[in-house]
Amino acid sequence: MASSYYNMMKGGRGEKKDEDAGGAENPFRNLDRSTVLQEARIFNETPVNVRKCSLVLTKILYMLNQGETLSTREATNFFFAITKLFQSSDVPLRRLVFLCIKELCKVAEDVIIVTSSLMKDMTGKEEAYRAAAIRALCMIVDQSMLQSVERYMKQAVVDKSPHVASAALLASLHFCQRGGPSAEVVKRWANEVQEATNSDNPMVQYHALALLYNIRKGDRLAVNKLLAKFTAGRYLKSPLAVCFLVKVVAKTIQEEAGLGQINASNFDFLESCLRHKSEMVVNEAAHALVNLRHASGRELTPAISVLQLFCSSAKPTIRYTAVRTLSQLAMTHPAAVSACNMDLENLITDTNRSIATLAITTLLKTGNEGNVDRLMKQITSFMNDISDEFKVVVVNAVKALCLKFPKKHALMMTYLAGMLREEGGYEFKRALVDTLVSIVEDNAEARETGLTHLCEFIEDCEHTNLAVRILALLGREGPRARQPHKYIRYIYNRVILENAPVRAAAVTAMAKFAAFNEELRANIMVLLKRCMMDQDDEVRDRATYYFYVLDSHQTALYNHYILGALQVSLVSLERALHSYVSAPTEEPFDLRSVPIVTAEEKRPRPDAATATQVRAAAADTPGGGAAATPATASAVDSYVETFKKMPQIAALGPLFKSSAPVQLTEPETEYVVKCIKHTFAHDLVFQFDCTNTMNDQLLENVTVKVEAAADTGFVVDGTIPCAKLECNVPGTTYTRVRLPEDDVAATGALECSLQFTAKDCDPNTGEVDEEGYPEAYSLEPVEITLADHVQRTIVANFAAAWEELGADRESSSTYALNQFKQLQEAADSVVGFFGMQPLDRSDRVPAEKSAHVLLMAGVFRGNVAVLVRCRLAAAGDSGVAMKLEVRSEDPDVNEAIIQAM
User: Fold this and answer.
1) What CATH number is given for 639-784 in this structure?
2) DSSP H stretches of helix in 408-561
3) Torsion angle, alpha carbons of 589, 592, 593, 599, to 10
4) Measured between alpha carbons, how far is residue 413 from residues 314, 396, 399, 615, 875 in Å?
5) What is the model's pLDDT at position 260?
6) Of 477, 825, 827, 836, which is the most exposed, with the fewest CB atoms less than 10 Å away?
């Protein structure tokens, strides 16, 4: 609008000059706010200068839309100056006034004063005023004034002018979404809104249906009646309205499926929309069907057939939306999409590169191991013609394909390495590095090839972050390679040629090679000694630190201070250190008082749907810790901060571990409860997060009664109640349970029930009855398992740590796991049971192996380090045989783990 007004006001000579210059410059590029404030004085002149006032208003709108912020005083002055322009009857000027009022009313004060002028325009005869006045009025009118304009709004909803009716419906929709009294007032207009759905104007019908749904969406029965009416007949002529109805029907199907209620008529409606004359509706229906969580192959078939036809459409937009939907579907139902592969292959040569990119990525998701070579050749033909944004999409698809077919890693990595050498921005290069790192970490056979490609890349890498991350990967994976010495040259080149952050990361990587490989230690120490003269203090400090640790010739120090990571919460460590120095004491600082950071969850195997997104950080700290990324508060940190304010829990000592939430009720029940188990040195604290979904009840003095059988040894030692639970407002109650002293790894199931005082309340007014009555609601039992006593931790060199503990601290036993037929199933179950961190990818069992060794590490309650080695062997029809070997610093912990298994 700003440019149109500028063109309208330009002189002919200036216009000719601009054309000769090849285009006009932006006249508002260098606007100054104070200058515009001064120019606004022209609004006070009489008579109104329409041309100059329009220019000033255009400048104001331009500034606001460019992100300029006005103070309350400035906005108020502007607002009241603008109101003086209501004396002009110029239509374009008045519409600019309405636009400015809508923008300034968010900041200005006393904007209610313009209500009478807006209502006058809303009820006038000028149609151009009426619609715009309604839109501006809905931004100003508050809940107390809505009833005064109710009569006018009801009339506007059914106005003969589609512009006025559409504006009134949208304003009503805004009122309805505010909730409270405003929503209640709009509900009284249901008859008028119902009448508006019969309009012949597509936009009015669309807005009327949207408003009618928002009025009724809180009542499931009313929504079902609405759908029954509009899906059964041909009431809706507007394609936009039908698209909205398709979305509502799809949402309803999802909700009903969760409750176990299936309405076949809703599916029939979606399928009937696949035959609609509007391509917009057909696409929306197909998109809805393929995104249904509970849809079966039979229900997806008609939608896929329609999308397959769309792939050969002459319209690029239709082809694009079809391929995009198929690409999304291929992530969950690749076999169903494979029927469209021939049509997708025809789109690889499409002139629209966006369509071609989506087609090739979809084929990569649905391809089989036999056609991977052909697909990779087709990708190469058009990669140079697409933007980096679409290149990233292709790279992610290649990543998924490589994880799906690990035996094809050589071909894939060669292709990815070729792209690394080509031109591209940071995001594109980062996606390539992410993919290569994922392949190296998920496929042991790809380690050597992947590290070699990445080493060649950092020889000419212009991005510091990527170089640092690759060096960190080399430090983790390189020492375990068959020929680790060949990577030292690439790493030391970074010390000579790169900037300080890269040099520091290279020093850390070399130190890890020296700590892990004895034959390389002497030579690397010579290199580290040279680095001790580096001009950057961080590089010098790292080199000095690593040199003297390596010079100690103690394997335990290597493991703890070079290979090992600082596996505590950095936020909690900072807080604990600050507290320690704030109150000087003769006691040394105890690192065990800081919660351990939960190790990375077990990554999916290569045959899983997606690869892990959680990776190690970019650079290691001098202690071998995680990368130098900003410390962020984890869930454990938030729990620690909360417990500090609760004396009953703070007295239990440092928090050892917090579990993931466990649902104790179904999500659709009237009371929803989930439990988080917090483990301390001698106690457990159950955190029960409760939600009351009943809008006619207020719950007070809410607790969870936990009952432990006498033979388990658990003792319930108090509760912290939740004062009240309002409808859909979460609340929390805590229960403390003392662990048995004679059972190191006590396990069992504790019965639970929700106890509260219920008070009836009016859902409309919120009025609560004074009289209440006690109630109890049964919950699922809370299971206490061995994993609740163990925290995951990572050990970089398992063999060295195992030998360090010694054979005299070992306990072992053998077991028959008859319930498992595959080694992988047994390994997954054992990892879940122990709650420890699998090491060296030992949680993934090669398909052809009949025996496997699973390595795990953890910290037992009381900060006792534990290492576990499980030897698994297939025993034919007898299942899986397992020999369990446990080493720790405490023989009682060894025995407890053996007995628990």
Assistant:
1) 2.60.40.1480
2) 409-420, 426-442, 447-458, 464-477, 488-497, 500-516, 518-531, 537-550, 555-558
3) 130
4) 37, 13, 10, 19, 37
5) 64
6) 825
Outline which parts of the chain fall under CATH 3.30.310.10: 787-900
Looking at this protein, which amino acid is placed at residue 448? E
Torsion of CA 48, 49, 53, 55, to 10 degrees: 170
For every residue of 92-147, DSSP letters joined together read: HHHHHHHHHHHHHTTT-S-GGGGHHHHHHHHTSS-HHHHHHHHHHHHHH--HHHHG
Nearby residues of 648 by Cβ (< 8 Å), 6 or more positions away: 718, 720, 734, 736
pLDDT digits (tens, 9 = 90+) for 760-813: 888 777 788 888 889 999 999 999 988 888 888 888 888 888 988 888 888 898
Q: Which helix (H) or strand (E) holds 44?
A: none
Between CA 614 and CA 752 the distance in angstroms is: 35
d(CA 57, CA 84): 13
How many angstroms separate the CA atoms of 504 and 527, rounded?
13
Whether 467 has a pLDDT exceeding 80, the answer reads yes
Q: In the structure, how many helices (H) and strands (E) does the chain have? A: 40, 17
* Exposed/middle/buried for residue 345 (C-beta within 10 Å: 0-12, 13-18, 19+): middle
Query: What distance in Å separates the CA atoms of residue 268 and residue 284, rounded to the nearest whole number?
Result: 15
Contact 856, 838 (CB under 8 A): yes
Question: CATH 2.60.40.1480 in the chain, residues?
Answer: 639-784
* Distance from the Cα of residue 74 to its chain's centroid: 39
- pTM greater than 0.70: no
Q: Distance between CA 68 and CA 776 in Å, rounded? A: 56
Distances (CA, A) of 296 to 178, 333, 336: 38, 10, 10
Coil, helix or strand at residue 473 = helix
Residue type at 685 in one-letter notation? V
The CATH homologous superfamily for domain 787-900 is: TATA-Binding Protein (3.30.310.10)
- Residue 607 is predicted with a pLDDT of 34
SS3 367: coil
- Of 795, 850, 842, the C-alpha closest to 821 is 850
* Long-range own/partner contacts, residues 365-368 (CB < 8 A, 24 or more apart): 365/327, 365/330, 365/331, 365/334, 365/337, 365/397, 365/400, 365/401, 366/330, 366/334, 366/335, 366/337, 366/338, 366/341, 367/341, 367/401
Banded pLDDT at 605 (limits 50, 70, 90) = very low
Predicted confidence (pLDDT) per residue in 724-741, tens digit: 988 888 999 999 999 888
What H or E segment, with its residue span, contains residue 860?
Answer: strand 851-860
